């Protein structure tokens, strides 16, 4: 039977893969996808905790799942705004390579 | 059986997440991300979170990834050209990720409460949509209304950001 430790380790690995995507890729859209992977890893942790910590009446603690609902909503709004920014950036610079975005570099 | 299902969908999810990180073509990365989300929804089902699993497929795989693919097609992205990769960047990234995974593993291994199996629900046929709904609308009604305002603000912001400059 999977224990809570299993779910947390899988969530940690998924988060680290998202982190790898953000740190190692140069295309800004793939970096954004890594960001979404990190958010989903947090969602998995929350749902696992919600299921494994039952309330006194024997039901899951639904606070975790409500939090996941909010995170999914906010992530969808964030993706919309972030992609609008990326499109505006592409219109200005004609590139999606992060190393070409150096106007603010010291 | 439950363990087999959990491992199947977790391994699938992690393999597709590896595909997102290491594939060169942006469209391949986007499709791998869709499959990651679907596998994650299956893992949610193993946790008896059916409503969240369906919301995950509808919102993430159905709306967010469609938006990503629209933008990839709009910007007409090609595969990443292989620019010279500095080995120090790879080493730094690998260290950060390795350190993070080591820290998580150490914490999880040292905490005995995490190694118990799943507690049985008092009522296995309880409708979890009504459970989430009651909690959302009774205890979290104000954040719910604020999320509505947030979505409106995000929509207005996206329209504003997409306008062409008036010459």
Shape estimate of chain B: extended
What's the total number of strands of chain B?
Answer: 0
- Global mean pLDDT of chain B: 88
- Spans of at least 5 consecutive residues with low confidence of chain A: none
Roughly how many Å is the radius of gyration of chain B? 21 Å
At CATH level 2, the architecture of chain A is Orthogonal Bundle
Q: Work out the radius of gyration of chain A.
A: 18 Å
In DSSP terms (H or I, runs of 4 or more residues), the helix count of chain B works out at 6
Main sheet characteristics of chain A: none
Oligomer description: heterodimer
Shape summary of chain A: elongated
For the largest interface, the chains and their residue counts are: A-B, 73 and 85 residues
How many independent structural domains of chain B? 3
Could you describe the 3D structure shown?
The complex is a heterodimer of chains A (106) and B (167). In chain A, 73% of the residues lie in helices and 0% in strands. Chain A is mainly α. Chain A has one domain (4-100): Helix Hairpins (Orthogonal Bundle). In chain A, helix 1 runs antiparallel to helix 2 (28-52) and helix 2 runs antiparallel to helix 3. The radius of gyration of chain A is 18 Å and the shape is elongated. Chain B has 6 helices and no strands. Chain B has helices at 2-22, 26-46, 50-75, 87-109, 128-139, 141-161.
